[in-house]
Design a protein that fits this description.
By secondary structure, this protein is an alpha/beta fold. The protein is built from nine helices and eight strands.
Length: about 220
């Protein structure tokens, strides 16, 4: 089932790239594997998927040990606790959910010298939801300035999780706002827009997403 779902999702992405005049292969599929067993990740990997997203540090570290034979690119997409930054800096290729200068500084300081710079995105709370992490859009320029100066990390772009919407045009609206804001920050050479999930990935691609995070549509409902 997972290989078939993967094929269908990749087809949807490809069709959306064509329909919205995006460059071919400009949108990366990030398979959100949190709460799913290593065996599911292995099946998806064997079907061609290489990028996987986790939200819980300890769970992810166990999976990384179990799947050490696979050349997986690991992304952390969950809320970040200060006491987890050392593990994130050492064991992940990407961290999408940086929402403060303190967290960015810790990741920079704790990134092992033998590893390439850690790719990070700043999480923006587009819907001002108290239940979600992230900075406001107004805070984004200053945090970009501060984070871009840090060593051992590479500021790649932004991540967002807007409030769910059923209407397609309403799904597009926060992504359009964020894309327009990023275009004004061209001095930072940001190349990554991490937004769009199972239920709104087409709207996200329409507004410039470069990484869509898909979990339930690929692996089934989370347990």
């Amino acid at each position: 089932m997972i290989p078939n779902r993967l094929k269908e999702i990749l087809s949807q992405i490809k069709q959306a790239e064509i329909h919205y005049h995006r460059q071919p292969d400009s949108v990366l599929l990030l398979a959100v594997s949190k709460t799913k067993p290593s065996s599911d990740i292995a099946v998806a990997y064997q079907a061609g998927q290489r990028h996987f997203g986790e939200s819980y540090c300890q769970e992810a570290l166990i999976k990384q040990r179990e799947l050490g034979a696979y050349a997986i690119t690991w992304h952390f997409i969950g809320p970040i606790q200060s006491n987890k930054t050392k593990a994130l800096a050492a064991h992940f290729d990407w961290v999408h959910s940086v929402d403060s200068l303190n967290i960015a500084q810790r990741l920079s300081k704790q990134r092992p010298a033998n590893l390439a710079p850690l790719n990070i995105c700043l999480q923006v709370n587009m819907s001002n939801e108290l239940s979600k992490s992230g900075i406001s859009l107004d805070e984004l320029p200053q945090l970009c300035e501060q984070v871009a100066l840090l060593p051992n990390i590479k500021l790649r772009g932004v991540m967002a999780i807007p409030a769910p919407e059923d209407d397609f045009e309403r799904q597009r609206l926060p992504y359009k706002t964020l894309s327009q804001a990023i275009n004004k920050l061209d001095c930072f050479k940001l190349d990554t827009l991490s937004f769009g999930m199972s239920d709104d990935l087409i709207a996200a691609i329409a507004e410039g997403s470069t990484i869509v995070r898909v979990g339930s549509a690929l692996f089934g409902a989370r347990s």
